[in-house]
Write a structure and sequence with these properties.
single chain, 438 residues, alpha+beta, 6-stranded mixed β-sheet, 12 helices, 19 strands
Length: 438
């Protein structure tokens, strides 16, 4: 009797498990079935179209576009559905000119955040810094605006004004600014004074700053290195602070100027096999083999992080002599593919992530410098204004003296490091000469 009872209980439990398991299985299967879910979407679409109280002017395209924007916005801050006008704006960007205020923005922790202000632009001259949060544009809150809407609000015809309200998390300060839009077209390779007259400083130290990675960046940088080499450059400071990134091929071509041929620069990996790619140095001829200090900060993003991460890994393997100095970088290391659609719209979809040669992920991690040197927001702002042509003169007289006396702690530390290496190398050479004579 006891045996029968136990057997019956066991059978009941097994049947129960089968029933529950089947329900879970079919529920999971239903989530991945396209047709029932498309039917649900169509039903909701019709309810809204027919019964929404203020929906008399809604079109199917309005609803579909809004649905696609909502769907893409749930994935990550960089994926988005672009209406035809937005896609056309993107294509204009890649051709090098547009009317705007000159700030690169992204969504971070649900806040519209400045990745970096672009030099010699209205946003830069107004003192906007990397990490600033834009909370209003033209009096409208950005909390529901989204990245696409914010870009549309900030852009416009050169000479027109746009009002922005920014919040600086480090201080809690909120400020209203009126920016006059201009044509944004920036020279990407500059010297210490924000110009293109490259000269070697004390101890044979050269300096090159990349403001972003445009179509001519690698070629312009190569020309700058040639000019500095003619003047007897012994070491180089490569300044990537505030550089928001740009073209991947230019990041590879910049990095390969310091690497032996065939060295891995960066790799990408995604869900699909075709997204797994490797980019190697293909430069012919002798690379730059002298000591390099690469300056980075929170505004160094994307292509800047690719270059910094590559040179950091290459140095660990003994393939170049680079030190990364400054602050941890922004952490924007994902690949967005642009997928055009038949009606003139397009998807910008995150399809892969970047990895350094040692397979460190860049996205949301950033590059940690070998030598950390922190600068305050105010010191950083004053330093860039001091070096920006016309930056000091645009300030009130009460602020001009303070900015003229601004110090660049990160650059000063980089110079100290290279000066020490120079002195050490000279002593080593002298010692070898004495040994050879003896």
């Amino acid at each position: 009797m006891k045996r029968r009872f136990m057997f019956g209980a066991l059978m009941t439990a097994l049947v129960g498990n089968l029933v529950v398991g089947a329900q879970v299985y079919f529920a999971a299967a239903e989530k991945n079935e396209p047709y029932p879910n498309l039917e649900l979407f169509s039903r909701v679409l019709e309810y809204v179209r027919k019964d929404y109280v203020d929906g008399q002017d809604l079109t199917y395209q309005d609803l579909i576009y809004s649905s696609l924007k909502g769907m893409l916005s749930t994935l990550d801050p960089h994926s988005e559905f672009m209406e035809p006008i937005k896609y056309e704006d993107l294509r204009s960007d890649t051709q090098g000119e547009f009317g705007g205020v000159g700030i690169v923005i992204s969504m971070r922790d649900n806040h519209l955040t400045v990745v970096s202000p672009m030099e010699d632009t209205p946003g830069f001259r107004a003192g906007i810094l990397s990490g600033d949060q834009i909370i209003k544009i033209n009096g409208k809150s950005t909390s529901t605006m989204g990245l696409e809407g914010a870009v549309q609000e900030l852009r416009g015809a050169p000479g027109t004004d746009v009002e922005v309200t920014i919040r600086r998390p480090s201080t809690g300060e909120t400020k209203d600014l009126t920016l006059t839009r201009s044509v944004i077209k920036v020279t990407t390779v500059k010297d210490l004074e924000g110009r293109g007259a490259f000269s070697v400083g004390d101890h044979g130290i050269g300096y090159i700053r990349l403001t972003q990675f445009g179509e001519q960046t690698a070629m312009e940088m190569e020309d700058a290195i040639k000019e500095l080499n003619k003047q007897g450059m012994e070491s180089l400071i490569l300044d990537l602070r505030g550089n928001p990134g740009g073209l991947l091929d230019q990041a590879v071509r910049v990095a390969e100027q310091f690497l032996p041929g065939g060295h891995l620069v960066v790799s990408t990996e995604g869900r699909n096999h075709e997204e797994k790619m490797e980019y190697h140095a293909r430069r012919r001829g002798k690379p730059f083999e002298k000591p390099v200090v690469v300056l980075v900060n929170h505004g160094s993003a994307s292509a800047s992080e690719i270059v910094a991460g590559c040179l950091q890994d290459a140095t660990a393997l003994g393939h170049c002599q680079a030190l990364i100095l400054g602050e941890q970088t922004f952490g924007k290391g994902s690949v967005q593919s642009i997928l055009p659609l038949p009606d003139g719209s397009a998807l910008r979809l995150t399809t892969a992530k970047y990895y350094t040669p040692s397979h460190k992920v860049i996205h949301e991690k950033g590059i940690v410098p070998d030598i950390e040197v922190i600068m305050s927001d105010e010191d950083e702002r004053d330093m860039w204004l001091k070096r920006s042509p016309g930056g000091v003169e645009a300030l009130p007289e009460t602020e001009q003296q303070r900015v003229r006396e601004a110090k660049d702690a990160q650059l000063d530390r980089a110079i100290d490091v290279l000066r020490s290496l120079s002195i050490y190398s000279q002593r080593s050479r002298d010692s070898r000469i004495r040994t050879a004579r003896n």
